[in-house]
Amino acid sequence: MTQVSIEEYAVAGRDGGPYAITAGPDGALWFTLVHSGRIGRLVPGGEVATYQLDEPSCRPTVIASGPDGAVWFTEYQAHRIGRISVDGGAVEEFALPTADCAPFGITCGPDGALWFTETAADRIGRITPDGQVTEFPLPVSGAFPSAIAAGGDGALWFALNQAHAIGRITTDGTVSLHPLPTEAAAPVGITAGRDGGLWFVEIAAGQIGRIASDGRITEYPLPDRTARPHAVTTDGSGAAWFTEWGGNRVGRITSDGAIAVYDLPTPGSEPHGIALGPDGALWLALENGALARVVPG
């Protein structure tokens, strides 16, 4: 089993709520502080900077690097998409056409736009770097689309948390749905794999899933089915790493389904987002106010 070293770095007070994290185009890590309405930046080995958004209760949630050299994020409570420059923290915010849509997941698409989910409106959205928004309705209601990722097939793939399915949308808006084998699995996080498939996590079922580009789904039960896996990313070797929100752990799954999990140093740290950092380590957003750096040994 691969061994790891884990270090934690305080970036906010315990109520600050680091939630999601991404590697920016500037060699820094960018993260959301969901409870305090701030965006954070950390260069590995350097000092933390945070940027206050105009509305502290906007709940910045998921964050991603954009095609324009900026970092983009969703504002779940304010129903907006935000953009922050990496050379000074200038923020722009874009209102969405559908009221009270609660945007959550966001990713850079293959078409030079950002794609995002609207959890309360059963829609997938697309926003260009200049702020032009298009929305695509899903063929299901109450589905709570959550995380979204660009697949290797030129389409966008997303988790339907309450429809217990994985969705796919092409850049022209054609949607297809793939129900999961496990009932009430409640998928949340999703990420592209190195082999053309996508990895996702089932928070209610305690499983890691993989979906091939043709829709074939494989599920892998975790050692602790109550661990509530939340987010997932891949490393340079093609293995997928995931957070266990309920288990206070980080885990790794290889392409052949071998799973290893590792306890985090601080009890009750509530790990949420995970990303591969510019330094080659895995970085976790811990809602207790810290980021964790995970280095395989």
TrEMBL record:
Molecular function (Gene Ontology), one example: lyase activity
Keywords carried by this UniProt record: Antibiotic resistance, Lyase, Magnesium, Metal-binding
Binding site for Mg(2+): E270, E287
Key word Calcium present: no
Record carries keyword Lyase: yes
Residue positions binding substrate: H230
Protein name (record): Virginiamycin B lyase
Described purpose of this protein according to its UniProt entry: Inactivates the type B streptogramin antibiotics by linearizing the lactone ring at the ester linkage, generating a free phenylglycine carboxylate and converting the threonyl moiety into 2-amino-butenoic acid.
Family: Belongs to the Vgb family.
Cofactor section: Mg(2+)
EC number(s) reported in the record: 4.2.99.-
Quaternary organization: Monomer.
Active-site residues, Swiss-Prot/TrEMBL: H272
